[in-house]
Known about the structure:
Layout: E1 3-7, H1 12-24, E2 29-34, E3 54-58, H2 64-73, E4 76-81, H3 88-93, H4 96-116, E5 123-129, H5 153-172, E6 176-181, E7 183-185, H6 194-203, E8 208-211, E9 217-222, H7 223-236, E10 242-245, E11 250-252, H8 253-263, E12 271-274, H9 289-295, H10 303-316, H11 318-326, H12 331-337
Parallel strand pairs: 1-2, 1-4, 2-3, 4-5, 5-6, 6-10, 7-9, 8-12
Antiparallel strand pairs: 9-11
Helix pairs in contact: 1-7, 2-4, 4-5, 6-8, 10-11
Amino acid sequence: MPFTLVTGGCGFIGSNFIRQMRLEEPGRSILNFDLLTYAGNLENLVSLESDEGYQFVKGDIADGELVAKLFEDYEIDSVVHFAAESHVDRSISGPSVFVQTNVTGTQVLLEAARTAWSQGEGRFLMVSTDEVYGSLGETGLFREDTPLDPSSPYSASKAAADLLCIAYHRTFGFPVVLSRCSNNYGPYQFPEKLIPLMIQRASQGEKLPVYGDGLNVRDWIHVDDHNRALRIILEKGELGRVYNVGADNEQANLHIVESILYRLSRPRDLIEYVTDRPGHDRRYAMDSTRLQQELGWRPQVEFAEGLASTVDWYLDNREWWERILSGEYRDYYERQYGGK
Ligand code: NAD
Ligand code: DAU
């Protein structure tokens, strides 16, 4: 039976993707390939432990031999490529691993899939980001033909990976399709990103570090809406084409933080303005007309409801993030797989 190879499936979006796909497309088996970096957490997929349509292999997407063997050992007819270093602040303090994983890792995967799919069969979905377009002023939207203008080592490495995918399509006819999505929120997001960080800190009465003036704007989408879009793009997207994904939901960071404080009945004076992120993009906003008109996708989760349910999820799953903060989540692999 053929597998969909999901890279980075132990991270935030990938783990939600795998759960959604197993629930809504139970006939499709999933092979999750993940290095279990600090951001990968097997506990995110504990509900699938006895699911016969799900398998996990630990490994690095930049390890050419291992990735080639994966394509030999399993019949893989599609790839959804999430694996990446994903945090902008970490790319500022240590850019090298971003190039290694996001650029080299993507090229290694493309090459292995191209070799395995020598007749042009298969479909490869590159999961990318709106950050490749850089920053907007007060008006305008990112469209798929907006020039790439990345600001951080993270977004530059994602842009490089996108260009490799497009080059593989043009040069080799490789069957790749690309998505570029705005900021995701929802359950299982690592508590270094804005929304889970603020929920976790506010719930403990700790100060909330807001960068700069707090008026940078992000375009927020619930992770389930993103993943529904990815499944449609994987199935029906035109090869070689890019699809923007966004839910028309621009919010200033300060507004997000205030909404979280309100939901948690915590005082506004927890907010602490701190030094701005270097190269901090001012505003992101997506035009996802192409995805809506050509592939019929629509976002379903309304932001106020989605944020409220996300805050509640973190309150109800306190143990999940406490185990991350204490580092205990890393023991899970040893217990479950005995170091294999
Ligand atoms: P994440 O940091 O939560 O998860 C990344 C996963 O990749 C982890 O499980 C990690 O262990 C794995 N990984 C890292 N390096 C690896 C390697 N060398 N080999 C194998 N696995 C490796 O990231 P996320 O927020 O879930 O984002 C997933 C993807 O979606 C990324 O490609 C990111 O650029 C993209 N994206 C994210 C957002 C967002 O808002 N979070 C928005 C648009 C696009
Ligand atoms: O736009 C999509 C991108 O969204 C993804 O490609 C990235 O993988 C993902 O990490 C996210 O990038 P951002 O840099 O936008 O997300 P982050 O949660 O780090 O920050 C969101 C905004 O909040 C940003 O303007 C910086 C600000 N911020 C963030 C943190 C962690 C703060 O003000 N304080 C903080 O402590």
